[in-house]
Input
Amino acid sequence: MIEEILKRLEAAANKEKALILQRFFKTGVGQYGEGDLFFGIQVPTLRSLVKEFQALPMEETPRLLSSPYHEARFLAILILVKKYSKASPIEQQKIYNFYLDNTAYINNWDLVDVSAHHIVGHYLFTKDRSILYSLASTGNLWQRRIAIIATAYFIKKADFNDTLKISEILLKDREDLIHKAVGWMLREVGKKDIEIEKSFLAKYYNVMPRVMLRYAIEKFPEQERKQYLKGEK
Output
């Protein structure tokens, strides 16, 4: 099956779109996606392939996930998410463990964002969550992003504690992609309970990175946003 998948990806390749995606995902020297390769395939096409290849055996998944091509890894992640959603608890644990064992290949923001909450967040919802704090404290950008994005599942269930605690850990992170992710999750908390988000902001809005704050208050009324940004709250 893996050979058929790779042939389909190669057949769908578009050199012009590949160049656009390489720029979009910052693949230049010193950038977060340095060296990543692209076929030039758009997400809807990849999602359509999930339906065809969701039966990909787990033992073949590492080959797809370790591909140097971004879209192959993205497809592997989408297949994992699909498998997880239909799996038994034992199989879910295997997929969860596989996911965390292979974070070296979950190495861009889109790969994290389509999967961390569906797999890591869902799996940990009724379990010990200390692994998220370990991930949030690593030197790996993508593991830190997994830690905060995984909590999106908890937020969906009106469980905000870990989102807020991990946000505190990441307040002084150096990476813009973490600032955006934390701000996004704080905004999601606010959609469920605005007072909890505002309580967090009251403590930290003057010290959090500007991008993080902008993302967190994006849905606030304009005048209120201006007050936060001017430091007047």
The two ends are 57 Å apart (CA to CA). The chain has 16 helices and no strands. The first helix runs from residue 2 to 11.
